[in-house]
């Protein structure tokens, strides 16, 4: 079967690249903290919850396990259980260590560094977070921007707060660190692409 390349011109490609394509640098992350942690996010605002200082994140993967079922020398693949990869964000460190301090306190809240004691009830140390993919075009009102898709992570908590390398030779650089979260599940909770309408 031959392909008709007259139907696959650069003009046809352009017509299918809606909005000029999604840009990976247009996103926003917001993280909630456990209420019992005692953090005053109202005074720090977006600095503490991550809207500005989280410089890299991920739209989550969708994974289904595989159950191989042998049959007479062949294997029938059957869908297995769903799994969720850990979610990692990269944070720009400011001079007040706002997000770093919050993540260290959160981790210590779960398992104290000295005593190994901590909050054992998952519903008290697990919270939620959102990552929004933003559009290049403006919203319906001046100063707004459209959210193309919003993912919400439920039951999230920090599993690893990475080290911050220190180096005399590291000039013209701002400190960064990574936080890896475990979570129960994610869902699509908003955006133009969730069901065709703004949520």
Number of domains: 1
Q: What percent of the residues sit in helical stretches (DSSP H or I)?
A: 10-25%
What's the rounded overall pLDDT mean?
A: 88
- Low-confidence regions: none
Describe the sheet with the most strands: 7 strands, antiparallel
Topology record:
Blueprint: H1 10-16, E1 27-31, H2 41-44, H3 46-49, E2 54-56, E3 63-71, E4 74-83, E5 87-92, H4 98-110, H5 122-125, E6 127-138, E7 145-161, E8 176-182, E9 185-190, H6 192-195
Antiparallel strand pairs: 1-6, 2-5, 3-4, 5-8, 6-7, 7-8, 7-9
Please provide a written account of the structure:
The protein is of the alpha+beta class and 199 residues long. It has a single domain (22-60, 78-195), classed as Roll (Pnp Oxidase, Chain A). 18% of the residues lie in helices and 38% in strands. The protein contains six helices and nine strands; from the N terminus they run αβααββββααββββα. Strands 1, 2, 5, 6, 7, 8 and 9 form a seven-stranded antiparallel beta sheet that branches. The chain is globular and about 70 Å long. The N and C termini lie far apart (44 Å). The model has no long low-confidence stretch (mean pLDDT 88).
Concise synopsis of the structure shown:
This protein is α+β, with helices and mostly antiparallel strands and 199 residues long. 18% of the residues lie in helices and 38% in strands.
């Amino acid at each position: 079967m031959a392909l008709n390349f007259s139907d696959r011109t650069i003009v046809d490609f352009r017509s299918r690249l809606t909005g000029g394509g999604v840009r990976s640098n247009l996103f926003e992350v917001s993280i909630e903290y456990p209420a019992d942690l005692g953090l005053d996010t109202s005074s720090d605002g977006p600095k503490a919850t991550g809207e500005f200082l989280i410089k890299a994140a991920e739209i989550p993967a969708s994974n289904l396990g595989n159950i191989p079922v042998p049959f007479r020398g062949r294997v029938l693949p059957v869908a297995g259980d769903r799994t969720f990869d850990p979610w990692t964000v990269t944070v720009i460190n400011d001079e007040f260590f706002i997000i770093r301090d919050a993540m260290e306190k959160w981790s210590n809240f779960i398992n104290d560094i000295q005593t190994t004691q901590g909050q054992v009830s998952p519903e008290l140390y697990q919270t939620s977070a959102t990552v929004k993919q933003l559009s290049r075009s403006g919203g319906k009102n001046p100063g707004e921007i459209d959210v193309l898709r919003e993912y919400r992570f439920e039951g999230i908590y920090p599993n690893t707060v990475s080290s911050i390398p220190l180096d005399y030779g590291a000039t013209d650089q701002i400190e960064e660190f990574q936080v890896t979260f475990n979570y129960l599940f994610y869902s699509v909770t908003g955006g133009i692409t969730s069901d065709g309408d703004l949520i």
